Amino acid sequence: MPINITMPALSPTMEEGNLAKWLVKEGDTVKSGDVIAEIETDKATMEVEAVDEGVVAKLVVPAGTEGVKVNALIAVLAADGEDVAAAASGAGAAPAPKAAAAEAPKAEAKAEAAPAPAAAPAAAAPAPAAAPAAALGNRTFSSPLARRLAKEAGIDLSAIAGSGPHGRVVKSDVEAAVSGGGAKAAPTAAPQAAAAAPAAAPKGASDETVLKLFEPGSYELVPHDGMRKIIAKRLVESKQTVPHFYVTVDCELDALLALRAQLNDAAPRKDSAPAYKLSVNDMVIKAMALALRDVPDANVSWTEANMVKHNHADVGVAVSIPGGLITPIIRKAEEKTLSAISNEMRDLGKRAKDRKLKPEEFQGGTTSVSNMGMMGVKNFAAVINPPHATILAVGAGEQRVIVRKGEMVIATVMSVTLSTDHRCVDGALGAELLNAFKGYIENPMGMLV
Question: Which residues, in sequence order, are bridge partners of residue 430?
C-alpha cells in the first residue's frame, strides 16, 4: 500500500513549517534514513529523513510552500513492488500515514522554552492534495497561510486563480491580488471571520484601523514571517502572565578587563590562531551561572502546582539574527571553563545566524542574558522568556567618575538590570542573586577557581 509522508513536528510546540526544499524527485528510490527534504521552522532549518523505503510516487506539497501544518500530507512513497502510478493516483487514501523523522527532534517537552499550547493542532486533512484546488461547489481550496492573508486583506479567495498544485491558492497568489487591488471579500466574510476569531487571542490594531491613518501609496505592507509572529506571541504572553520586577546595579569592570586581556594573551596557539578569545559576554555568562549556583533558590521556574528548582545553570544568550532573535543555550555553564564557554558560544552564534541550530540547542534553559553593550546601550530592561524566572540585561562598559574611599576616581562601569518573575523570585532574592553576580564581575579571579 502507498506510504504517506507527513509534515513532522520538529519541536513540542510546532504547529506549522515551511517546506523549503525537496532533496528527492518523483521516481527516486529512497531508503530509511535518507535525507529527503529541508523544513524551515520559525527559528531553524532542519533536514528530514525518510522512515520507510520505497519509490517517491508523488510530491504533494511543492518546494517553497509556507505554513504547512504538522501532520499534513507532503509526499507519497510506493512500497517495494507496488505500482508507482497507482500509488500516486491514490495519494492521501492510504491508511496509517507515517511522519518523516527530523534530524534532531528529540528535544524533551520539559526543556521547551515556551509553554505547550492549550490544545494540540488537529492533523491536517490530506484531501486538498487529492482534490482540485479550484472552487468545488462553494469551496475554494487554499493553503492555511493564504486563507489568513486573504482574511486580513479583505480578499475573496474564490475570485483568485490559484497557482499551486491543482490550482490551489497559495501565499503568492494572495499577495499578487493584494498588490493588484484584488476582489473584495464577500459581504458575509467579515462577520464569519469575526465569529471564528478566538476571543482569548490578544490582537493588535487591525490593518484597516492603522492604514486609514496614512496616505494611500505612502507605505508598503510586509507580511509577518513565522519568527516575528512567534516573537510577538511570546512577548505578549510574557507581559500578560509574568509579573516582572526589576533590580539594577553598577559593576566595575577594570579588574575583569585586565584579567581578560591576560588570559587572551596566554592563550595557546593552534595553526597560528589562538585556541580561544574571551569576550566580556563570555565572562558575564560564567558569572551569571556561578551566581545561580550560589543562590539556588533563584534558579527556578514557576508552574501552577510546583516550583521547579534546577540542578544546573543553563544560560540562554540572546543572539540577533535576520528577522528577530534566538537564544542558544550554554548547558551547565557553572561547570565549564571560560575558554569552553567562549568557543561554544562562538559556534552556537554562527549556527544561529545560519539558522542551523537543533531544537535542543535553543529550547529550555534556566535563565537568559541579553547584552546590548556592544551597541552602545547604557541600560535597559529585558522581557523574561518563560519558563525562565530571570533574564539579565547588560549595558555598555563606560568610563565614569565614582567615589572610592572619599576620593573621585575614574572607573569602567557597566550597568546591569535583572528582570525577575515575582511569583518565584521576589525583590530580596533578586537582589541577592544580582549581588552574587556583581561579586564575580568585580572579583573575576573567583571564576577561575
Answer: none
Domain 3-128 of CATH type 3.40.50.300 = no
Three-state SS for 22? strand
To which residue does cell 506539497 refer?
Answer: 61
Q: Are strands 269-270 and 273-274 parallel, antiparallel or unpaired?
A: antiparallel
Q: What beta strand segments (E) does 35-164 contain?
A: 35-40, 45-49, 54-59, 65-69, 73-78, 98-99, 101-102
Contact by Cβ (8 Å): 106, 12:
no
Rounded CA separation 149/170 (Å)? 10
Residue type, 4: N
Give the whole-angstrom CA distance, residue 8 versus residue 35: 13
Strand stretches in 341-438, DSSP E: 367-371, 390-404, 407-421
From residue 6, alpha-carbon distances to 48, 213, 292 in Å are 11, 44, 42
In sequence order, the β-bridge partners of residue 99 are: 6
Residues contacting residue 350 through CB under 8 Å, at least 6 positions apart: none
Cα-Cα end-to-end distance for the chain: 63
- Spatial contact of 182 and 146, defined as CB atoms under 8 Å apart: no
Give me the residue label for grid cell 486573504: 150
Bond before 126 cis per omega within 30 degrees? no
Q: Is the pLDDT reported for residue 192 higher than 60?
A: no
Q: Cell 553593550 appears where? A: 373
Please give the single-letter amino acid code of residue 143.
Answer: S
162 phi-psi bin (left φ>0, alpha ψ -120 to 50, beta other): beta
- Per DSSP, the residues of 432-449 read HHHHHHHHHHHSGGGG--
Residue 422 a catalytic site member: yes
Which CATH number does 242-447 carry? 3.30.559.10
State yes or no: pLDDT of 113 exceeds 50.
no
> Exposure of 418 by Cβ count < 10 A (0-12 exposed, 13-18 middle, 19+ buried)?
buried
pLDDT digits (tens, 9 = 90+) for 360-400: 899 899 999 999 999 999 999 999 999 999 999 999 999 99
- Tell me: pLDDT of 13 over 70: no
Query: For the chain, what are the domain ranges?
Result: 3-128, 131-225, 242-447
Fold identical between 3-128 and 242-447? Answer: no
Q: What is the pLDDT of residue 70?
A: 87
User: Using an 8 Å Cβ cutoff, are 276 and 342 in contact?
Assistant: yes
pLDDT in tens, 305-336: 999 999 999 999 999 988 888 999 999 999 99
Would you say residue 239 has pLDDT above 90?
yes
Catalytic residue among 244, 310, 312, 422: 422
CA-nearest of 163, 106, 97 to 124 is: 97
Q: Which residues, in sequence order, are CB contacts of 432 under 8 Å at separation 6+?
A: 295, 298
